[in-house]
Design a protein that fits this description.
The protein is mainly β and 109 residues long. It has one domain (19-100). Helix content is 0%, strand content 57%. The protein has no helices and twelve strands. The chain has strands at 14-19, 23-24, 28-30, 35-41, 44-53, 61-62, 64-65, 68-69, 72-73, 77-83, 89-101, 103-108. The strands form three sheets. Strands 2, 3, 5, 6, 9 and 11 form a six-stranded antiparallel beta sheet that branches.
């Protein structure tokens, strides 16, 4: 038996902004089957961590793979993180360290 994956019919969502201090950024609610993309740019010294919540935004956890941290950016990046498998999961960016500059960011599906 083969499984055919259908493309998501959900509309694309995005949030974007600029950070000049540590802290969490606006979350987006993602439809199941939608790809999640993160873009980070600017001249800055800091760390941006991608976080996901599967419980309606009550708990956000940093991304890991096989128990190792992943999804942390210290330089400009433009990456598709993964396809969401849970309807209504929320994703956000968290500036976990900041020294200087401006971190421009966009999170989208």
């Amino acid at each position: 038996m083969s499984i055919v994956r259908q493309p998501s019919q959900a509309k694309h969502v995005k949030t974007e902004g600029a950070a000049t201090a540590t802290g969490t950024q606006t979350a987006i609610k993602v439809a199941a089957g939608s790809p999640v993309r993160v873009e980070v740019w600017g001249t800055f010294v800091g760390t941006v961590q991608v976080e996901r919540s599967g419980d309606g935004g009550l708990t956000f956890l940093p991304l890991t793979k096989a128990g190792a941290a992943t999804g942390a950016f210290t330089a400009p990046a433009n990456e598709q993180i993964e396809d969401e498998n849970q309807e209504g999961a929320q994703w956000r960016l968290n500036v976990t360290a900041f020294t200087s500059g401006t971190i421009n960011w966009r999170l989208s599906t």
